[in-house]
Design a protein that fits this description.
heterodimer; A: alpha/beta; Rossmann fold; Coagulation Factor XIII, Chain A, domain 1; 6-stranded mixed β-sheet; 5-stranded mixed β-sheet; 19 strands; B: mainly alpha; elongated
Amino acid sequence: MSNVAIETHELGKSYTLGVKGAGYGTLREAIVKAAKRPFKRERRAKKSGDLLWALKDLSLTINSGEVVGLIGHNGAGKSTLLKILSRITEPSTGYADVTGRVGSLLEVGTGFHPELTGRENIFLNGAILGMRRAEIRTRFDEIVEFAEMERFLDTPVKRYSSGMSVRLAFAVAAHLEPEILLVDEVLAVGDASFQRKSLGKMNEVAKEGRTVVFVSHNLAIIQALCTRGILLERGEVQADAPIVGAIDSYLRTLESAASDDLLERTDRDSRAYDETLVRRLEIRDASGGHPNVVVAGRPATIAVDVTEHLPSMECQLTVVNSLGQPVCTFDSEMTAPVDVRDSEPGTRLECHVESLPLLPGRYRIDVIVKAKRHIQDGLQAAALFDVEPGTVGERPVAAEAEGDVVLPHSWRLPA
Amino acid sequence: MVSPMETLAPEERGAAAAAPQPETLRLQPTRGFSRVLAPRELWRYRDLAGQIALRDITVRYRQTALGGAWAVLQPIGFMVVFSLIFGNVAGISSNGLPYPLFSLSALVPWTFFATALMLGSDSLVSNSALVSKIYFPRIFMPAGVIVAGFVDLAISLVILMVIVLAWGYVPSIAILTLPLLVTIAAAAALGTTAALSAINVRYRDVRYIVPFAIQMWLFISPVVYPSSQISEPWRTLSAINPMVGVVEGFRWATLGTGNAPWDLIGISALAAVAILLAGLAYFDRTERAFADFV
């Protein structure tokens, strides 16, 4: 039976501009405003010019049993849609009909109280996720076993390592049995073996015929789990297709976004302070040639240009493969003696790599610029680049090799 | 007013009656009062309400050396200081009662109320991770604080009764009015904290106002002085502060002396109901935007 599980009709969500960053209006302002216009309702926000539409006229139908991946840039509206579907926030226009019990995993471990023991937190967290007490009791042993932490049940969670609390939180969430499961970027947690276990569990959930709506930047996970992909851009559906097709369209939008002027991008890191912005990012092979084309195994330089000079800027660059999986990170905050900090102010940050041991293919670079102990700007896919076949340690790189990197190495072989 | 959350499309209503099919929730912009005052919604999440109250109770004195004793030490400490300053030095009348008993019987409900205000007004903000990530009826947050306060209140009531008996006073049948008085205090506390916690989501000024307001409130309630000191139209009028009826009622009920202050209790009860309704109404109106601001 393919009943409709989620149906949205011209769903929209707007935020008043200026709320971001500055955050709180003061009580004094509100009182003054109220005193000035005692009989007028607040109409200012109704003018569309002051509104930011995180979601716009979204009409979707998701049948029960479908496993849908939501993909898109930061700020495309993925998380807003999940927040509306999980009732955390209300839509501004339109409606969504949701049939069946909804469980949401918007962040693993929210609702854990550090002072409570593991046992107490299982009950609290279960209730927060919408489980009945009796239900938690029957599944208690299963949860504890999945999390592998019988010994620490009566220890306060604040004494857990972060890995442990994540494991426990995921275990509780994974044993929730809603008809509709909303998942936001939760699998990027724990160690590798636990990640595999969690992924297996998610797969199981998907196969049981429950409806799953999944948000992740890790396209490999999305591709492995989902059958249908919905690409959102600026709050609107850009593509709605079988998952492979949707991921392809997403990768194409990344490409066009990267070639645009970076200052025009609106999908910037929401935590950013925006005192300086990334204007341009480019990777160049040491031998010159085209920007954003490098030869495997050769030295390369990644240059980041920002709009303003700020004292003590730091930069973090992440190379991500075409499936959205991070390959490596260059982080200037992890200082080394070879680092140089100029005495002059400037707006260019450079990262030099002695040898770029990547397999041929297309990669992207995500960038975060920090200063004054805050993230100033962050962009995903600030540049895309192609790695051409080359040699690593005088050894040719095979184009069809497995993985993302090739390391210099040597063999000793019998005759 | 019908909660839009509960509205079923006509065809689904028929299906739902036929089989235990999952019901359809319509999520759409809501107006007016629909959330806190939706009993079905509260009932559906009753397990979570219990867990939140349980958490608040468990956590309150965890990793404190004295634990639950703090519930008693606070009012007792105030009793000692008040007896010295107001009883001895200032010589404030205590209607012929020993000043320590006079003040402690008032401090027990007062501490319950003040603690509820203090912790409750911050409850949404201090749980912002939950509020912005999970749906549940938000009123559980301030309500949980108040329910947790009942445990402290029970402990300090027992100690109060021990001290009263040791002093040679025997409570009369009037002690049976305690549940009513506690209900008035809880209703006033819930109404006030609901409003304050909701304002706090947008304006953190509340954090600075509340400690100050609690001290002011202490002195407009007859904790250190008897309300009989106030001249007549004002004495009765002062009971629109719900703690006036509660405090005077507590004295009468636990010490077994004096006349029943029914006039004060009655006015205070009405005031508490008004505060509760107004607080919940404000909470209800603002609740839908909490996740966007907290």
